[in-house]
Amino acid sequence: MANYIDNMENRENIAVGLDIGTTKIVAMIGKKNEYGKLEILGIGKAKSLGVARGVVNNITQTIQSIQQAVMEAEENSGYKINDVVVGIAGQHIRSIQHTDYISRSNPEEVISGKDIQLLIDQVNKLAMLPGEEIIHVLPQEFKIDGQSEIKEPIGMYGGRLEASFHVVVGQASSIRNVGRCIQSSGIELSGLTLEPLASADAVLSQEEKEAGVALIDIGGGTTDLAIFKDGIIRHTAVVPFGGNVITEDIKEGCSIIEKQAELLKVKFGSAWPGENKDNEIVSIPGLRGREPKEISLKNLSKIIHARVVEIIEQVFAEIKAYGHEDPRKKLIAGIVLTGGGAQLQHIKQLVEYITGMDTRIGYPNEHLAGNSSEDISSPLFATAVGLVMNSIANNTQSAYKLEVTQAVQEPRQIVRPVVEEPLAPPVQEVEEPKVDNKVEREIETTENKIRRSFFDKYVDKIKDFLDNAE
Predict the structure, then answer these.
(1) Residue 409's pLDDT is what?
(2) Fewest C-beta in 10 Å: which of 55, 85, 308, 433?
(3) pTM above 0.85, yes or no
(4) Which one-letter DSSP state was computed for residue 411?
């Protein structure tokens, strides 16, 4: 026991992100190296069995999948996980724009973080629809005594402090169900982050956010959108369609089982039918001794193309709703595609064709250490990398190094699903060459401080709810 306490006191600043998706659940353990880059210590991945379109619909199966992913990450890294930052998504998420103000009692005193927090607390009291709760209150721009376009009001004088906010709202029951799954898996919930915001942190550069950019995260159950302009979040949306509906269309259109449809989509699928010739055919094994089924790749591409066009057009409608056609709101950096769906062949060209906007595929490798494996640099793990970055920004200590003796004495109680996936090989650490130049410390912005203090309160509220629930 004494050895355990010593470890807790001397442990490193290790961050853990948990991406609860519709098709997969990913637990990722990481830390910042001496160059300020993210070093991934371990990753665990499990098939998501109890989530549909980003919303938990089977508590027991979700808990099993979380436990499997957490255990795999622990075995790969040699660290024991205490708490996680979790991504929130799903079709219940919506966002609104809101402007509010406070009148300061003493204009002769400079504006402090307390004044901004007072304004945010005021926004948190907004009346929402029944069953809804505010997840994020993100300040955009401030106005002091009529002077507008102020990004950092702290230290300035003024009597009336006004701000425009981007408010993200979600169903309280869905959020609490996620909290219940985390707690029942034997770990604590340290923070909540909207998944498109986490993905944006992982794949977008500050220059793109300043110029104006739309991040489209195509997941298994949902497609998430986050729009940035002048370095500020301007619009978020969740479209309740993703890669799963494409697989479902292939299954119905080709009269094959779901597993074969997913394999066809990943290996041979294309979003652009013109790329395939009429004589390109793939043979699918028949069920229980039946004759093999021949599938035309051109027909396969037509099925995929029709559904992808529908998804992109819905997302483009959200971009237009933000006001992209207004010259002052123009997204100069265009579109960045990420998530598992971004790996579909020719999807970049199709998005450019539909929207007329420059498009690139977003990889999270910009923030990763040089020795990271190619698998982790995939768009598939963009959200998980962003969640780990968010956890690091909160200065959390979410895991500690596990000694060999402890691993024997304190095994994690795991309820395993019937079908187990093989464990991924451990990530090997390679020493980077030492450079004389020092890495500059990142300065926390007002937005990060506010987001952190708000999340602390929100997570505490969820914990209280779970503790008092029967």
Answers:
(1) 43
(2) 433
(3) no
(4) -
